[in-house]
Amino acid sequence: MKNLLLKLFLLICLPTFVWAQNFPQKGTRVVVPFSAGSGPDMVMRIVSDKLSKEWGQQVMLDNKPGANGWLAETDIKRASPDGYTLAALDTTHIALQPLLYKQMPFDPIADFDPVSTLYTTKFFVVVGMNSPYKTLNDLINAAKEKNGRMTYGSWGIGSVGHLGAAMLEASTHTQMTHVPFKEMPMLYTAVSTGEIDWAFGTAATTSALYQSKKLRFLAYAGPQRMPGYQDVPTVAEASNLPGFELRTWVAVFGPKGTSKTVSEKINQSIMKALADSEVREKLAVFGLEPWIGTPSDVVKATEQDVKRYSGIIKTSNISLD
Q1: Closest-CA residue to 295 (of 251, 255, 259, 261)
Q2: pLDDT tens-place string over residues 226-247
């Protein structure tokens, strides 16, 4: 009887094991809840090209922006957990949305499995080139004087840019007015023209306007100055705010139940791509840092961000319901 049960177990499990070991045997689709040309899209295209060459199978991107990323997340939730449908999701999708919505059509933690780290990036305090604020302290002092009349923008209520500014308000005991925008290009154009006073932005999202000298960086929300932008002080250097940092990350996820063997192979291939000097140079141009890690590092980052932002979301009464 025991031998019979063992044979039945092997008949059931062996094909799955062999299938996982032979991954990939066909093309892979990566759902991206961002528009073409965005940071996550750009990085995923660079990495996908490397994966296609290594695997001998096409890795295709499927852009599904809008609806707070829910179109892409619903897609990945419904997919088979075989590694052939993946998604590139960020801090907001995984860590923040459960804090901002009372009800969601899925649970990012329960319904998705982290497969691989991808990249991280930190933010600059951005103003227009003609802004009267030449330093971060100039901006903070003006915010205190204006008492609510200074404006800052973000790419949406509850976004990392919004929460970062709320943390800056709390840290400096100031009150400012939040102006949410639907799209990042509109946001930074508004900063460049002086329509709003400032915003948080990455080197990637502000690149075009920064290079054309329509935007200026007052400070960098990282532990040390960013390579290539050594003239921009950190927030800690520019003000009395030691330890103030603002970052976001992007990682690759699969549906819940994705094979560990498949996940490990995908992770190893992505790490190989991110270690490539050509890939690293392309990312560095836009201030993006290859995130060398494992699925467990994505879990840790999520836990850290939940802890980092839950307090400011509660005290600022920020909600998307």
Answers
A1: 251
A2: 988 999 999 999 998 999 999 9
119: tokens are 């990249």
**pLDDT tops 90 at residue 17:** no
Between CA 303 and CA 67 the distance in angstroms is 24
Q: Maximum CA pair distance of the chain?
A: 83
Return d(Cα 154, Cα 158) in angstroms, integer. 9
Q: CA–CA separation, 283 vs 277, rounded Å?
A: 10
Q: DSSP string spanning 210-270?
A: HHTTSEEEEEE-SSSPPTT-TTSPBHHHHSS-TT---EEEEEEEEETT--HHHHHHHHHHH
- Residue 77: count of CB within 10 angstroms of its CB: 18
Q: Nearest 5°: phi and psi at 232?
A: -95, 115
CA 137 from chain center: how many Å? 28
End-to-end CA distance of the chain, in Å?
A: 57
Structural domains of the chain sorted by starting position, each given as residue range(s) with its CATH number in brackets: 26-120+249-315 (3.40.190.150), 124-238 (3.40.190.10)
* C-alpha span between 187 and 167 (Å, rounded): 19
Which residues neighbour 167 within 8 Å (Cβ) at sequence distance 6 or greater? Answer: 244, 246, 312
pLDDT of residue 100: 94
> Each residue of 272-309: pLDDT tens digit?
999 999 999 999 988 899 999 999 999 999 999 999 99
What is 188-220 written as a DSSP string? HHHHHHTSSSEEEE-TTTTHHHHHTTSEEEEEE
Place of tokens 């093309």: 27
Give me the percent of the chain exceeding a pLDDT of 90: 80
Chain centre distance of CA 205: 12
In angstroms and rounded to an integer, the radius of gyration of the C-alpha atoms of the chain is: 22
> How many whole angstroms from its chain centre is CA 123?
12
